[in-house]
């Protein structure tokens, strides 16, 4: 090994962790210590709060926090907070919001809010015998055993909606599930769901042990494998859409409204039938969704996993958005499965998360679902609008220009020169380098 393993790293102080890393991995170069220090918050209490969000924390990792204004959603105007480092995401969302603001804006519908979790278990018993035991004994006991856990959630209007026994023995020998659906109201609900499921596992074990329905051999075969929520929530879903007459689809690219609508619909259809395109298409959607998810302190990994699983639900990976042109009406929409919360987790702790939620009018979880779906739809509209007209690079690379110039050490005067130089040109990395070298050679 090129480095020594470390014992008790988590027990070291923050400075102790840094000293060890710099010594062991960074050749003692104190410049790296300075980099970490630059990103500490000067407010010691606020820094301590950030340190305690995760484990083995040594600094903060900053992301740009931007605002996309002019989102008209269900008749209300919003400015969306977006935490994202990719150039042109905020600009594209803002441009799409502005495009639709005088056409009725975005409309949303909450289709369902059910979340799911499973107790996965193995038992060597005939399926009909287990089903009888579940129907006439276990199901009632599972609800009773979790009454204390669900009390507060039930008082807020949520709780366990249903519990089913699922036979998976055709796919794996002796494998069954207790599949439960939940309503977690304004919380994302992961801890609540997992607590309920762990109690399910205990109750299942207890009830099987005392039941007269099973032989001792069958009882001994029971194994509780795991109790865990699912981040795939196909029944926790929101629809966001825009529509207008084709004659109102004014675009400044020079093509007619009819051609724009036709090419736009073709682009969506390609993403519906071609997985290679759908992957990039949906990634762009999640650019918009994840930026607001992060800004509001929610779990973007969960939203990503759920969205991509949903895109594959029919056996082939496909577009999350859809488009129709009927009777002169252009309609573009997304059905987005997403599970988020506005209470619990970072929502009550992280100052910028609290700012984001206040900026959005302290939304309910369902309202936040709607905002997230709109952000994804707007991002996709902006990307497709560019793709079928001027091409994606013109806008994207113009936003990326400052990143290139910063890497090259350009002065503020030189940056202004490049903004003017590329005002009517498509930015390319090659052209930036050529012009930069020409400018410096003068």
UniProtKB/TrEMBL annotation:
GO biological process, one term: coenzyme A metabolic process
Keyword Manganese: no
Keywords: NAD, Oxidoreductase
GO MF term set: hydroxymethylglutaryl-CoA reductase (NADH) activity; hydroxymethylglutaryl-CoA reductase (NADPH) activity
Catalysed conversion reaction: (R)-mevalonate + 2 NAD(+) + CoA = (3S)-3-hydroxy-3-methylglutaryl-CoA + 2 NADH + 2 H(+)
EC number(s) reported in the record: 1.1.1.88
Family: Belongs to the HMG-CoA reductase family.
Official protein name in the record: 3-hydroxy-3-methylglutaryl coenzyme A reductase
Lineage: Bacteria, Pseudomonadati, Bacteroidota, Flavobacteriia, Flavobacteriales
């Amino acid at each position: 090994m090129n480095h020594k393993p470390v014992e008790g790293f988590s027990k070291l102080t923050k400075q102790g962790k840094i000293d060890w890393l710099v010594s062991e991995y960074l050749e003692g170069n104190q410049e790296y210590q300075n980099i970490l220090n630059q990103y500490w918050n000067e407010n010691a209490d606020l820094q301590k709060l950030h340190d305690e969000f995760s484990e083995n924390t040594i600094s903060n990792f900053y992301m740009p926090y931007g605002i996309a204004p002019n989102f008209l959603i269900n008749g209300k105007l919003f400015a969306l907070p977006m935490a994202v480092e990719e150039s042109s995401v905020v600009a594209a969302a803002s441009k799409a919001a502005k495009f639709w603001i005088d056409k009725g804006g975005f409309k949303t519908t909450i289709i369902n809010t059910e979340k799911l979790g499973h107790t996965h278990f193995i038992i060597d018993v005939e399926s009909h015998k287990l089903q009888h035991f579940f129907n006439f004994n276990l199901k009632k006991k599972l609800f009773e055993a979790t009454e204390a856990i669900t009390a507060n959630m039930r008082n807020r209007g949520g709780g366990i909606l249903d519990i089913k026994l699922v036979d998976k023995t055709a796919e794996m020998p002796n494998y069954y599930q207790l599949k439960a659906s939940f309503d977690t109201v304004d919380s994302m609900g992961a801890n609540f769901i997992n607590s309920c499921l762990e109690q399910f596992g205990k109750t299942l074990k207890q009830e099987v042990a005392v039941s007269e329905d099973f032989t001792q051999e069958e009882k001994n075969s029971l194994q509780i494998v795991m109790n865990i929520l699912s981040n795939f929530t196909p029944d926790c879903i929101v629809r966001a859409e825009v529509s207008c007459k084709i004659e109102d689809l004014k675009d400044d690219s020079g093509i007619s409204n009819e051609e724009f609508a036709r090419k736009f619909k073709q682009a969506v259809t390609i993403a519906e039938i071609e997985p290679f395109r759908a992957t990039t298409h949906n990634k762009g959607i999640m650019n918009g969704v994840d930026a607001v998810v992060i800004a509001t302190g929610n779990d973007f990994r969960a939203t990503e996993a759920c969205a991509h699983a949903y895109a594959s639900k029919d056996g082939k990976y496909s577009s999350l958005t859809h488009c129709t042109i009927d009777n002169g009406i252009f309609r573009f929409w997304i059905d987005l499965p997403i599970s988020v919360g506005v209470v619990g987790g970072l929502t009550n702790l992280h100052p910028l998360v609290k700012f984001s939620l206040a900026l959005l009018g302290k939304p309910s979880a369902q309202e936040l679902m709607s905002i997230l779906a709109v952000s994804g739809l707007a991002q996709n509209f902006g990307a497709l609008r560019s793709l079928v007209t001027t091409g994606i690079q013109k806008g994207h690379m113009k936003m990326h220009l400052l990143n290139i110039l910063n890497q090259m050490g350009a002065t503020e005067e030189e940056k202004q020169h490049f903004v003017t130089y590329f005002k009517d040109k498509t930015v390319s990395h090659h052209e930036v380098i050529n012009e930069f070298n020409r400018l410096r050679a003068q």
